[in-house]
Design goal:
single chain; mainly beta; Jelly Rolls; 5-stranded antiparallel β-sheet; 4-stranded antiparallel β-sheet; 1 helix; globular
Length: 118
């Protein structure tokens, strides 16, 4: 297994949804939270197969896929083991949910680890 780190996506101050990040070179296995102060809100996702049209990500039960953000002041690492997230080619990470986005006070930059085939 070879890991490649993708810098981004970035949620700019005053926003809740970043521009996309291209993860098509492999499968997403880990998301590293920003080390800046997080303004609250769990993570939800939008995915795309081609980088053009994005849809909110739901599981087979019709629930928005949500990752609970630990209540810590420092960066947290979130291991992604759900197959449907690992299969995303292009990804946006939202602060909050589709119905209730959470605006970030500071610029937030994530890092995504993808598993690539050697």
């Amino acid at each position: 297994m070879t890991l490649q780190i993708v810098d981004g996506p970035v949620i700019e101050a005053g926003e809740s949804l970043p521009s996309e990040v291209d993860c098509s070179a492999g499968s997403i296995v880990r998301i590293t939270m920003p080390s800046t102060k997080w303004s609250g809100g769990n993570l939800t996702f939008q995915i795309s197969s081609d980088g053009n049209g994005y849809n909110d990500l739901y599981n087979a039960r019709g629930e928005e896929v949500t990752v609970v953000v630990p209540k810590k002041e420092h960066a947290a690492i979130i291991v992604i083991n759900e197959e449907f997230v690992r299969a995303a080619a292009f990804l946006k990470i939202r602060s909050g949910t589709g119905a209730h986005p959470v605006i970030q006070a500071e610029r937030q930059q994530f890092a995504i680890a993808i598993e690539v085939m050697p």
